[in-house]
Structures are given as structure tokens and as C-alpha cells.
Amino acid sequence: MTEPHDHTGDGVYEFGLDDVENQVREIHEVPAAEVISTTAVHLMTAAAVKLGLGDMPNARDHIDLDEARKLITALAGLIVAGAPDMGSAHAAPLRDGLRTLQLAFREESIVPDPPGQGPGEKYTGPVN
């Protein structure tokens, strides 16, 4: 059995076979709706940070609209594709969060995208 090794001198942490097997055992117990929701929350958080909406004092220093566009588009694809199988209890708050990010992107943009061409709008339709 392999155990994690901390190579303190080189700052490298290796995972062994037991770690991978434990993670696989744990993930198989998680419902798909929860995996989709968790992934969506990670994308939302990353997009919010790229839009300067983080809760740190210098959040505006981290604005990167190109990166935010990619994250929001990926989020939109995930939500649109996953929503029918997730049910409205899971999908509704994700849709609301997506719409909020799309509107924040539009507000942050110096040159706004035409309706229907903003991040994720090819999946969600125009957002106003």
C-alpha cells in the first residue's frame, strides 16, 4: 500500500494508489446532480473573481474579462445541459447565479456585446 510522501525539501506532495482508490470510492456515492451543482459553484466562484467580485480588498485588481467570458460560457453550457436532469430545486439557483454573472459581465464591459452574443448567451439566449 502506498502512502502520501511529503518531500519537504522540494515542496512536492505525492499521492499514492490508496488515495486514488479512496477518492473513487467516495465519488461513486455522490449523486450526479450534486457533482454538477458543485462544479457549477466552482465555475461561478472563479467567474466572480475574474469579474472583480471577490471578497478581498483588492478584488478589482483581479478583473480579467476574457477569462470571465470563458468561465461563464462553460457554466452556461453545464447548466443548460444538466438542468433537465437536475430538477428545478437544483437548477433554479444555478440559473439565477448564471444570470447575475452575465449581467455583471455586461456592466463591467467597456464595449458591451450585442444582445445574444454575451458570455453563455449562445446557450441561454439574450440576457437583459
Task: Give the helices and strands, then pairings.
Layout: E1 5-7, E2 12-14, H1 17-27, H2 32-50, H3 65-86, H4 88-108, H5 121-124
Antiparallel strand pairs: 1-2
Organism: Enteractinococcus coprophilus
Pfam family, one: DUF1844
Region (Disordered): 108-128
Describe the structure.
The protein has 128 residues and is mainly α. The chain folds into 2 domains: 1-30, no CATH class; 32-124, no CATH class. Helix content is 60%, strand content 5%. The protein contains 5 helices and 2 strands. Strands 1-2 form a two-stranded antiparallel ribbon. Strand 1 (5-7) and strand 2 (12-14) form a beta hairpin. It is globular and about 50 Å long.
Number of domains: 2
Summarize the biggest pleated sheet. Answer: 2 strands, antiparallel
Which secondary-structure class do the elements indicate? mainly alpha
- What is the string of SSEs from the N terminus onward? EEHHHHH
Which blocks of ≥5 consecutive residues have pLDDT under 50? none
The amount of helix comes to 55-70%
Shape: globular
Strands of the widest sheet, in order across it, are 1-2
For the CA atoms, what is the radius of gyration?
19 Å
- Strand tally, please? 2
Per DSSP, what share of the residues sits in E-state strands of 2 or more residues? under 5%
Overall residue-averaged pLDDT value: 87
- How far apart lie the N and C ends? 56 Å
Tally of helical runs: 5
